Amino acid sequence: MTEPFEPVIIGFTCNWCSYRAADMAGTARIKYPPNVRLIRLMCSGRLDPMFVLKALSSGADGVLITGCHPGECHYLVQNYKALRRYLLLRRVLGEMGIEPQRIRLVWASAAEGVRLAEEITRMVEEVRALGPLNWPGRTNGHLEALEQAAQQAEGEPV
Amino acid sequence: MTVESMSQTNHQERIGVYVCHCGTNIAGVVDVEEVARWAAEKLQRRGVIIARDYKFMCSSLGQELIENDIKELGLTRVVVAACSPHLHEQTFRTACARAGLNPYLCELVSIREQVSWVHTDTAAATEKSKAVVAGGVERVLYHEALEPLHVPIHPATMVVGGGIAGIQAALEIADAGFPVYLVEREPSIGGHMAQFDKTFPTLDCAACILTPRMVSVGTHPNITMLTWSEVTDVTGYVGNFTVTVKKKPRYINTDLCTGCGICWEKCPKKVIDEVFEAGLGYRKAVYTPFPQAVPKYPVIDHENCTYFQKGTCKACEKFCPTGAIAFEQEEEYLTLQVGNIILATGFDILDARRVAQYGYGRYANVFTSLEFERLSNAAGPTSGNIVLRDGMTVPKTVGIIHCVGSRDRNYNNYCSAICCMQSLKFAHLIHERTGATVYNFYIDIRTPAKAYDEFYQRVLGEGTIFCRGRVAEVSDVALNPGEEGKLVIQTEDTLAGRQRRIPVDMVILSVGLEPRQDAKEVAKLFGISCSADGWIIEKHPKLDPVVTMTEGILVAGCAQGPKDIPATVAQGAAAAVRVLARIQQGQISLEPVRASVNEELCSGCRICNGLCPFNAIMFHEDRMVTEINPALCQGCGTCVAACPTGAITGTVFSNEQVLAQIDGLLMHNVEPGPLEPAAPA
Fold it and tell me: How many CB atoms lie within 10 A of CB B234?
């Protein structure tokens, strides 16, 4: 392969802090690599671990989770719940052979456009160094089982 | 969710995609025509029937374009790729509503803040824009037609901070006929402005223009003043806040006190007044901060009162003619219902000791600007005589150093906005009252408001000497006989291109403004955010400077950033108008972002029950199901994410919407799907 690998990273942002940090990075014209595609949630607490599994299993090479700094959550304490889920999810993913660098939690306040841009840049570099995740190949047929589990979690009939 | 399952959901939807150039803001980096053409072609099977690009989508012509398409092509969903939803989501939702489409069937995706402004490579930025549009199209398929929630607005308003910003806001609202609670931490309202002598550029006496307003506040039938009080807890949401206010004990029965002043006359305990007199003067242990204080009632300073510390004295009680002294008073907590809260908590000045090279705290005759305000104030500790720290010597030469702790990466990067004019005012006052030679050491003179530069010209004409350059240090080390007994200002004169040593008798440090020491805690208490510097972040720096990102919490004055008195007053009034507009409507529309439980699916596991910090989740023991109270739910979605059976759904951010957006962002909905190896043909 002659072309360098360009990872695709899905980023989850909080409406109150990190999405505004991304806005601020834009307003201040701070540059970061175009590999990250952001999704706005109301709170990092809204992040269902299923979203991360879905992103990784559908072709994303990494997932960035962002939220308000501890103690600064717009909904008081919900980012702590995001933190717990993140730590657990990272362990689960680790057991599935997913490198820990592929899932990253970053706290970024509405004022921290620079910090968010830096963290995105760092993550893109790390994931680029890891290479493609190629989940379907890796999971070797377990993908269907995972999707079933995801659907169960959604409450849909399997 | 596979492409197959997705394809069952579309087809009946007719989606319009609108890609904005934003002049060259987006089009300069992203090939917007290509994005629109691509969307029309590649997302056709997902329901996109039209994709257009336009120079300014937010302009009235751009909005008409969308409205016409909705009417003529029968669009059922709209995706706009433009700026951040925080800027124009409402604009495009309103446009859709005008054309008869439910506003919540519109999705605004950001290709400006998140693409064109942060990326430079056109090919990569265009590719990302396509992905972002694909994500928006996929997501919008799962949007629901919603109605905004209407909640009643409590007519009372709380203003936190009794400086000029808070006073102005309180008076505006009260004059319009609505109740206001004005909470002030100190014993009197008035804030920093009450400490000043003259106000630039007109040199009106600060007390002369401020005290009538303070009296109006004190006597206004619609204003409840809560001085010597602090907010300790805030719950609820816009329209319906419940605020707990701690009333610190004054140890004075205000029903009996007449403010005659005999108690502080008789009090034997003298204390250095660090707050109002900036450490230059004394007050008693029972005191009002200044003669025109509103309210007129004194407070007893528990830390310094001889009776409280040693158990004997009670001089004030003995002499009080009305028996108003009440040593037994205890702190009291009030619970108040308000609809809106205006934060006018003001600023602190930078601790000049941090700028060690200027010798404040080491050399007696180095003063801060606030100290000088008290020194020059006719009601101050020296009765307005400008003298050295010994209390008698009139200075012959004075050096005023600008930008102390401001515009300096070692302290604060920002400009404190008021110091130039304040320093010019000091120069004028010193000239007028002492005839001393005055030096101003400045980096740039910034006098941008009405009549400010004229004042600068006036001070120039009075003979003040201006030396451009940042002062290196202030020292008392004399290098020649002329410097003996003086403070020597060592500075670079950048206009002459040389170093200078200027001996002076008095140094005034024009210290910068800083956020209140406890600004971070206050922000947390009220659920708002502060910038990295610590100033409260406004909703929009230009278009919405008095509103925070939390609905119902507004900001006015220096709490939002350094500003002069005219700007502070303007913000106080502006915040009041925003509140009044809300109150007049009687109710407010809220985003219908709420969670709800499908009782059929709820297994009664109660996992969600402990997750809600707003107590919106109730468990019905009888039916073994959970219910969410929509009036208390704030829409964070944490319970939605936690529900193992998928019984909880969150509007606007449903699982289906987010999962679909992931698929879209990864271009699974594009024909043919390049990233989906298993995609059916």
Answer: 18
pLDDT confidence of residue B5: 40
Q: Point out the residue among A10, A46, A50 whose CB comes nearest to the CB of B638.
A: A46
Give the mutation candidate from B8, B662, B666 for the A interface (greatest A CB count, under 10 A): B662
Give the start-to-end residue ranges of the domains of chain A. 9-154
Closest CA of chain A from B569, distance in Å: 26
CA distance B99 to chain A (A): 27
Q: Which residues contact B640 (CB under 8 A, 6 or more apart)?
A: A46, A48, B595, B648, B649, B650, B653, B654, B655
> ipTM of the assembly?
0.89
pLDDT digits (tens, 9 = 90+) for B659-678: 999 999 999 888 764 433 43
pLDDT at A62 over 50: yes
Closest CA to B578 of B153, B94, B95, B189: B153
Provide the whole-model pTM.
0.80
Nearest residue in chain A measured CA to CA from B26: A26
Q: Which residues on A lie below 8 Å from B659 (Cβ)?
A: 50-51, 54, 154
What domains can you pick out in chain B, each with its CATH number? 1-148 (3.40.50), 157-346+530-585 (3.50.50.60), 348-514 (3.50.50.60)
Give kind and range of the element (H or E) at residue B441: strand B437-442
Query: CB B306: neighbour CB atoms within 10 A?
Result: 15
Which residue type, as a one-letter code, is found at position A64? Answer: L
Indicate the residue of B115, B530, B637 with minimum beta-carbon distance to A43: B637
Contact list, A74 vs chain B (CB under 8 Å): 527, 550, 636
Q: Does A70 touch chain B (CB under 8 A)?
A: no
Query: In terms of DSSP H, where are the helices of B527-624?
Result: 565-585
Nearest CA in chain B to A31: B118
Answer yes or no: is pLDDT of A144 > 80: no
In chain B, which residue's Cα lies nearest the Cα of A115? B532
Banded model confidence at residue A158, pLDDT cuts 50, 70, 90: very low
Query: Cβ B613–A77 below 8 Å, yes or no?
Result: yes
Q: Chain A residues with CB inside 8 Å of B110's CB?
A: 22-23, 26, 38
* pLDDT tens profile B32-87: 999 999 999 999 999 999 999 999 999 999 999 999 999 999 999 999 999 999 99
Can you list the residues of chain B whose pLDDT is less than 70?
1-11, 672-681
Mean pLDDT estimate for chain B: 93
Amino acid B382 reads T
| A9-154 CATH pick, 3.40.50, 2.30.30, 3.30.70, 3.40.1000 | 3.40.50
Mean pLDDT of all residues belonging to chain A: 89
Instruction: Return the half-sphere exposure (C-beta side, CA atoms, 13 A cut-off) of residue B285.
Output: 19
Is residue B84 within 8 Å of A26, Cβ to Cβ?
yes
